[in-house]
Amino acid sequence: MVEPTSAGVRLTTLPLVSDQVRGETTIISVHKKSKDVKVGLEMGYSKDGRWLVISEIHPNTLCSTFSELKKGAKLLDVEADGVLHRHPSLQQAVVLIAGAVGDLRLTIMPLLDRYGFIVSMEEFLAHSVTRDMVREENIQLKKWQKRAATPKAWQEYASRKPDKLRKRIREGVPDAVRGFVWKLLAAARSSPEFRQATTWHELVAKAADIAEDHAVQIDKDVPRTMTEHIYFRSAGKTGQEALARLLKCYAAYHPELGYTQGMSSYAAVLLLYMTEEDAFWTFATLMKSCGLVGLFVDGFPLLFHHYDVWQQLIQKHLPKVDKHIKQELLQFLGMDMKEYNQIVKEQSPMRSMLPSMYTTYWFQSMVVGGDNPAPSAVAPRLMDCILLDGHLGVIFQFGLALLKSHEKELLKLRGDSLANALRTLPTRCGDFEALLEKAHEYKIADKTLQGPME
Amino acid sequence: MAAALSRAPSGTAPRPDDDYDYLFKVVIIGDSGVGKSNLLSRFTRNEFHLDSKSTIGVEFATRSISHDGKIIKAQIWDTGALPLLLPLPLVLPGQERYRAITSAYYRGAVGALLVYDISKRLTFENVERWLKELRTHADPSIVVMLVGNKCDLKHLQAVITDDAKSFAEQNNLAFIETSAMDSTNVDVAFETILIEIYRIVTRKTLDPTGDNKPGVPGGSRIVLEPAAGGKKKGGCC
């Protein structure tokens, strides 16, 4: 058992000072009580010799809780005892960090993947892009640019080749046109009057007057939504501001709903590719026209419907796993099979206890929120399909593929270990490209996914 | 009392997962953002995440401790946003539609950690409402401990320790201040409540069905007496 971080040491992440460093950097502030306290960083130079990079972070040291601090992060500045040292040499940095007592600030540029998500070195290397891949992507991108050149061209393509469109979208919309395509997909799902009732600017003005409890909850959740993406990383910066504004505008737009935890994940994904205003209307389309409000309004009608759908799907497609999960988790919940069957037969709300243990955040936060999220990089891919389908079918497919890929392991686990594995499964989804491909093999009828409301 | 405890057999010869003498279900409740998930992860996995996510749905984990020669296994449930299975009247503020926890969630729970953030006054003011909810939905004999978390933020303290302590005494709750971040009192908090439950369980005659694993949630419910007197645990800092 390794000793936890010693008592009395405080770690804080500070907001960036914008004129001092670029938006892609993060300041990490470590409070060192004495020279004996270890910071736990090892550094070296990048291959080209230009950058001082972090080569190792030791667990359970002062630095191990900062998720930006991953191998490969570039160390830009060190501020020790109030004195700032720009781009120190390796030797200098070591002396400064080891000798500091009190506040030690490290300015780093985290290691990012091509989409802007903070990644580990392993992930970075696993998804590095070759020239051939870029060439192929550019060919695809040209085709997409043609398809989505104008709304009219898009409509023609969509009505002439709906199956092909579906296939292409499932393969992933290229980043360069993603925001535009999302806008077109959302427009196809909402009536023209949809945007006429009010304007974005009116809503921005109204956002200041939303119910206080919703505003407070939004302000609590925004700093903990999709923070693996550099855009949402730093407090008070553009990404977080935009997300808070969007959610508050939505609360003003739909005051009966206001804000419910989980909504921020959906909104965050949209903001990565769209302007605030477009992201807002796309979000509103998802909520109202696609009925996702049912996941968030009091009583959660669509969520409960999704629990039932999930139970049917897992029983149909993964009967062995389903049986095993029922057996083991019911015991974990202190319920016997007889009692459970009775509950299901009577359609008692208690029947949702089982799926609610591990699927709630799949639906309410697109699998990328909550305590055990799938890698955020999967979110845009899921959103491609959600906007195309107008429902969360892809989440069910993803869930089925995920359980299938871990079937052998799950069947061996019992009680708590199984409960724990199920709950954390999305964090171990591995190569999600391959998983998504498998996911689409599961066919789910559109009509089973329509909620009980609206 | 807690000093006499040793960590669950995690070393040389771990006992299998389901080898325990007592299984107690403990729920963690409190306002959004007070650090419930980090208390859970600190106790069960010795992990702390500065950039933790809001909990959507439920989190749960288990850890065993040994006490009095017995293995006590705690099944700890942390609610972030548990949807209503049985809707309650909407009387509470904040993330009310989520906070109103269900009877299902409380099912079989014999202990509750009611957490507030010592640097956020409002989270302490809401404690009373959480208590009311516990009284409505949980077993009346559930053992409750009031936990002032984030005591590492002493310089931002907005809830005076003595206020919380006297509130706890008035309401017959145990009380402690913790920091999931620097680990202060986290183990002590969980161990104290588990031992308190153990004390009550072993004193009472339980479970007429004769199940020899008392405290297993479900089927056989343990009848607990209300926790006798507020335990006096000092603040940590």
UniProtKB/TrEMBL annotation, chain A:
Residues 27-112 form the PDZ domain. Keywords: Coiled coil, GTPase activation. SMART domains: TBC. InterPro entries: PDZ, Rab-GAP-TBC_dom, Rab-GAP_TBC_sf, Rab_GAP_TBC_domain. Residues 172-390 form the Rab-GAP TBC domain. One of its GO terms (molecular function) is GTPase activator activity. SUPFAM superfamilies: Ypt/Rab-GAP domain of gyp1p. PANTHER family: GTPASE ACTIVATING PROTEIN AND CENTROSOME-ASSOCIATED, ISOFORM B, RAB GTPASE-ACTIVATING PROTEIN 1-LIKE. This is Plant adhesion molecule 1. It comes from Chrysochromulina tobinii.
Automatic annotation (TrEMBL), chain B:
It is found in: Endomembrane system. It is a lipid-anchor. InterPro entries: P-loop_NTPase, Rab_GTPases_membrane_traffic, Small_GTP-bd, Small_GTPase. The keyword GTP-binding applies. GO terms for cellular component: endomembrane system. Residues 208-237 are annotated as: Disordered. GO terms for molecular function: GTP binding; GTPase activity. Pfam families: Ras. Keywords: GTP-binding, Lipoprotein, Membrane, Nucleotide-binding, Prenylation. PROSITE patterns: RAB, RAS, RHO. Belongs to the small GTPase superfamily. Rab family. This is Ras-related protein rab-11a. It comes from Chrysochromulina tobinii. The lineage of its organism: Eukaryota, Haptista, Haptophyta, Prymnesiophyceae, Prymnesiales.
